[in-house]
Here is the input.
Amino acid sequence: MDKRAIISDVHGNLEALTAVLADIHDQGITQIYCLGDIVGYGPNPCECIDHVMKMDMCILGNHDQAALFDPEGFSSGAERAIFWTRKQLESAGETEENTARMSFLCELPRQHHEGNATFVHGSARNPLMEYVFPEDVHNPAKLQRIFGLIEQYCFQGHTHVAGIFVKDDNQCKFYRPTDFDGEVVLGQQKTMINVGSVGQPRDGNPEASYVVQEGPRVTFRRVPYPHKKTVEKIYAIPDLDNFLGDRLKEGR
Here is the structure.
């Protein structure tokens, strides 16, 4: 099987996306899947959409949907950012570029199935909105219900925290990439793989996160990027809360 890169949660961070695409290119990988949230929070939504439109597969994220309709359950800062994002997508009027971008977002599916693997933004139970956090190992009923909907493997994002959930008999466990040196071979156990976030990591590491899949082998990669440039862009836009830039410095 050819290598494939799987990214998620770009969130309008062009510097992070550019760095990740360069890292993918350096490995000779040509197939790229995106698990949604191309926009939201970051200062370059249009440019990020343009890059993702060239990828092999993309599914809808909750911020992508919010840019098309109205945000639901967003914090005030996230809501302001998504309304600003919508303005950027509409600012040039009915140009060919913006029409193509909006059409692309409108046509994104909520999930993708390929063999024994499912690709979603949130979870197999609620592909768009449900978070599956590491601490959910203390809510076994929730994880058991989600695992019950997975054939074998599920690749997801949404939490911005990279790692894997494994169903072992009646127990569900979470492992961070540092627990297995960043590379794991998927076995017969049902597994959820969270690929982390390109544009806004929240696991204490500010470097962009994504995974490379080659058959059953999944490798988690971290890529440094000039986050100060992204932060300065955010600070310069009144409709984007400074906190959205501050958190990039620490990966939170």
Remarks:
- The radius of gyration is 17 Å.
